[in-house]
Amino acid sequence: MPSGLSVDIENEFRVLGQEAELLAEALQGLQDREFHETAAQRWIETAGVAAAVEKIYSGCERVLLLIAKHVDGAPIDKADAWHATLLNRMVNAYPGVRLPVLSEDCKSTLDRFRSFRHRVRNNYGISLDHDVVLERAAEVEGALGTFRKEVTVFIQAWTEQNS
Questions:
Q1: pLDDT tens by residue, 35-45
Q2: Where are the domains of the chain?
Q3: Which of 116, 108, 106, 107 is nearest to 136 (CA)?
Q4: From CA 157, how far away is CA 111, in angstroms rounded?
Q5: Using the 8-state DSSP alphabet, how is residue 75 labeled?
Q6: Cα separation, 148 vs 162, whole angstroms
Q7: pLDDT in tens, 106-144
């Protein structure tokens, strides 16, 4: 029997999947034609793709925040560096409560997206490196797949343990 937490996480995964599909479609479209003929078009391309990657990472954080709140019983204090604190908590066991949620590899990949998101949020679109934006966007599908798999395995085990 699914828990409210597993339903909430599946809802997040559904939306994340839709976002990732649209990003993949957009990337394919960008490869199929020369979109960035002008500086304005290149800016739209870069800023739009960067925003999509940023939103997908933010969705991953929402999933982890749900786990911190409902499994750990200890929501993350949103003070300085809370984003890194969240990832660090999820890669470690929470003593007496749960095993690690994420592997070191998954955490490392998510940390790259966390850093990228920080750059996107704190710079103008014209300051973003177009090639780096496209590189991160191309990594989303694999990273999201690994993240979803690890969280799903964790939630299934936790649900069985607590039913």
A1: 567 788 888 88
A2: 4-161
A3: 116
A4: 25
A5: P
A6: 21
A7: 999 999 999 999 989 888 888 988 889 999 999 999 999
Tell me how far apart the alpha carbons of residues 154 and 99 are, in angstroms, rounded to a whole number.
8
pLDDT value of position 34: 59
Per-residue b or e along 94-133, where b marks 16 or more CB atoms closer than 10 Å to that residue's CB = beeebebbbeeebbebbeebbebbebbeeeebeebeeeeb
Higher-confidence position of 63 and 6: 63
DSSP secondary structure code for residue 127 in this structure:
G
Assigned token pair, 125: 């679109």
Domain 4-161 classified CATH 3.30.1380? no
The amino acid sitting at 4 is G
Report the percentage of the chain scoring pLDDT > 70: 96
Query: Which of 82, 83, 89 minimizes the C-alpha distance to 67?
Result: 89
